Amino acid sequence: MNFTETAWKVFNQSIEDYHMSDDVNTLINNPFEKDTLERILYAKNWIDTVQWHLEDIIRDENIDPAEALYLKRTIDASNQKRTDLVEFIDSWFLNKFENITPKPEAKINTETIAWAVDRLSILALKVYHMSLEAYRESASEEHRANCKAKLDVLLTQQEDLSTSINQLLTDIENGNVKMKVYKQMKMYNDESLNPILYQKGQQK
């Protein structure tokens, strides 16, 4: 089983586990051993899955404004955790390939391994939920047909993205691509970088 096959299996296990309760307040129960890549991938997708449903809830037009604000801040915090974990995954791969010497003509990829994995995790969620719609008995035949067509596209994207990630890993291992990791430098959660936050602090 190659890397993306493993990741896809782990992502889908996380999604299935979450939907046993289908509650954004459910605490993660990671089944994989500490310090394994599978454990990290499971945690990554769990964050994505919870956030997926938070995004659904906040779009309720009748939501209480106070609850919406609480959810918005919860989503912001989730985004920060998601970014931190993506960067952790990149660091994991950076350590894995630390003894690889890139060739002089090695290229630099525009997207790191972990951010491509992030896309694969979200894609697993899209496939799961589009599958539900494609086969939802209470939906119209037209709705199911439209969703089935979209599902086919998503599955093609999964195949293409998986191939691309595996090729990138091979290119790094062979020294054809130089792995570099850049921090996202998120500013909106940082009290020293967000003007709204630090100006408020100066007014006290």
UniProtKB/TrEMBL annotation:
InterPro entries: DUF4254. It comes from the Bacteria. This is DUF4254 domain-containing protein. It comes from Chryseobacterium ginsengisoli.
